[in-house]
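Thread amino acids onto this structure.
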């Protein structure tokens, strides 16, 4: 049989598709990976979608127009209930599907016991399963680079044992879904310091935590000595915005992380299937925008520019114009000629903050 697998929007090799590929190849089937949405001749069609974005939904519709009910589409971008069959789930991922050798990827634990309103993990995967897999289930022999997809590894009762395995096996670990600062403590901190934690490209040391509200930011302050102990420029904190915070709250978190000397990586909240819509307050702009515009991210600005573009978009939607200092902040480092577009059209921007009128 010929099997066509469609990767709709994965930014890394799609874990589910690699398992499907292993399953069908073990039965002697011919498997092909499709990236372009073109009709191909096959006996069975499968697609996986990770993100619930307009672009992803458009691609799903195109596939459904091509194949109708002949294609099976799953993934968190379309359906939280559909899962791989047990005999597929237990397969070793087929990295050859992507011709991928740079790192292994997989889960040691699944699910999460927290019930964060913005998070898709509990409804999708349920409560924490601390024994979802072992390294041998997804790490090829000789591979030392490992990207972990676990959503809350440190809360697992066997977290320390897993950290010890990483150390003993000399794995280079990327905690891609971040670690939870709430569960960083005297027991696991010495182990985490020994783990060779890496960035997503496996080019330098980096450990990742997340911060989604000011309460969590307070925990970072309380655990300042832990954070400092990981080393200069070796801690990145992923900060979510656009869910239920005001600008003053978002900015307070950014300033707190700057005072701790960590690298802030900002991410806009994106609603998921069955998830909560954005709850951004109507009075989001509740502080001096000049202070925000003057803020410098600890990078070349590309990540921070996403936050400024978000502010510009929201401000324009609310007040009908852009605010010039925020436009200048957006193009402070990169794509500088773009600012001239606005300067040539003064009717598009204002030099005063409308919410202060």
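Threaded sequence (357 positions):
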């Amino acid at each position: 049989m010929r099997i066509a697998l469609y990767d709709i929007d994965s930014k890394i090799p799609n874990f589910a598709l690699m398992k499907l590929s292993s399953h069908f190849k073990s039965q002697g089937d011919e498997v092909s990976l499709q990236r372009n949405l073109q009709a191909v001749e096959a006996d069975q069609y499968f697609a996986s979608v990770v993100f619930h974005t307009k672009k992803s939904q458009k691609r799903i519709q195109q596939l459904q127009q091509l194949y109708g009910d002949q294609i099976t589409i799953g993934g968190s971008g379309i359906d939280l209930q559909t899962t791989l069959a047990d005999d597929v789930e237990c397969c070793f991922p087929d990295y050859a599907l992507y011709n991928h050798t740079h790192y292994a990827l997989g889960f040691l634990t699944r699910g999460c016991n927290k019930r964060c309103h913005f998070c898709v993990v509990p409804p999708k995967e349920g409560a924490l399963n601390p024994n979802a897999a072992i390294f041998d289930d997804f790490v090829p022999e000789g591979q030392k680079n490992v990207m972990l997809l676990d959503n809350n590894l440190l809360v697992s009762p066997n977290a320390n044992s897993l950290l010890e395995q990483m150390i003993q096996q000399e794995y280079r670990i990327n905690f891609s879904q971040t670690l939870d600062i709430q569960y960083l403590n005297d027991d696991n901190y010495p182990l985490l310091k020994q783990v060779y934690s890496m960035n997503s490209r496996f080019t330098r040391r980096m450990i990742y935590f997340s911060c989604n509200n000011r309460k969590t930011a307070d925990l970072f302050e309380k655990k300042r000595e832990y954070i400092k102990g990981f080393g200069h420029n070796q801690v990145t904190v992923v900060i979510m915005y656009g869910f239920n915070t005001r600008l003053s709250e978002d900015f307070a978190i950014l300033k707190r992380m700057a005072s701790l000397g960590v690298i802030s990586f900002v991410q806009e909240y994106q609603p998921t299937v069955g998830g909560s819509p954005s709850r951004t307050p109507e009075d989001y702009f509740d502080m001096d925008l000049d202070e925000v515009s003057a803020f410098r991210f600890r990078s070349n600005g590309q990540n921070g520019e996403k936050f400024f573009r978000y502010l510009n978009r929201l401000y324009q939607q609310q007040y009908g114009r852009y605010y010039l200092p925020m436009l200048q902040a957006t193009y402070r480092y990169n794509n500088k000629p773009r600012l001239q577009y606005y300067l040539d059209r003064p009717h598009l921007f204002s030099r005063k903050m409308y919410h202060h009128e």
